[in-house]
Design goal:
alpha+beta; 3-stranded antiparallel β-sheet; single chain; 25% strand; globular; 29% helix; 114 residues; Pantoate--beta-alanine Ligase, Chain: A,domain 2
């Protein structure tokens, strides 16, 4: 099936939370927790290039520090093909993709970077 991806910026609140109708299902505390996901994505991007073990350590540290957030997945993929990367070449366009539960609400987010 021919598929074309059209990339555009994600609308975010002033604290970086990706805007979504699902956010209306969160309490004020849940929104405050969900806003931390943006910080996690930026932290992971800041340590690349690195090993998968380093990324997993950052995720584990985040999970321990934020027990109200349950990360379903966090993957680094080729931004054009969405195929998961095993190595992070500094020249290729990448995306970090995340799904997490806050107050039983599944939230998704991503960031494209080089």
């Amino acid at each position: 099936m021919p598929i074309t991806l059209h990339m555009c910026d994600i609308a975010r609140d002033t604290n970086g939370l990706a805007l979504s109708s699902r956010n209306t299902r969160l309490s004020e505390n849940g929104i405050a927790e969900a806003q931390k996901l943006n910080k996690l994505l930026k932290e992971i991007i800041s340590i690349i290039p690195c090993s998968k073990e380093s990324i997993q350590k950052a995720i584990d540290r985040f999970t321990n520090d934020n027990p109200l957030i349950n990360i379903e997945y966090l993957k680094i993929v080729d931004a054009n093909t969405l195929i998961e990367l095993n190595e992070y070449s500094p020249s290729s366009s990448k995306a970090i993709c995340l799904a997490a539960f806050v107050e039983n609400v599944r939230l998704i987010d991503n960031m494209i970077f080089v």
